[in-house]
User: Fold this.
Amino acid sequence: MTKPATGILHAIGLLVLRVGVGGFMMSHGWGKFSKVLAGNFEFADPLGLGPEISLVSAAGAEFICAGLVIIGLATRFSAAAVAFTMGVAAFVVHASDPWTMGAGASKEPALLFGIAFLALVLTGPGRIALDALIVKHWKKRGAPQSD
Assistant:
């Protein structure tokens, strides 16, 4: 078994990934989040939960969870929420669209975002994250931790 990468370049790489995809996802989700704030709940209902729940869930994942990924707080949970949302977007909402970008809609943006956030679910946020500071604090206090 190989030792996990823990060097500074690894930490910076994960930071760049988190901030990059998180920032783009937040800008993508801002329109949905604005609709929630305005009380406009007209939205698709891809999973049969109702348009209100679908909009709040998508806005929460795409805007709030993406923001948490940027700062590295509850990173794996937040990235999983975004990855799931992108899976629904790619395989349910855009089910009949082509795989790659063309003149119209496609699965490609959702798949690209989904893959990046899935990578963060698997790797975690890295050392330059609030999650890492919290774990470091818990270790100092001797509190139990899980991985």
User: Anything to note?
Assistant: The chain is about 65% helix and 0% strand. Residues 17-130 form one domain. The two ends are 18 Å apart (CA to CA). The chain has one domain: 17-130.
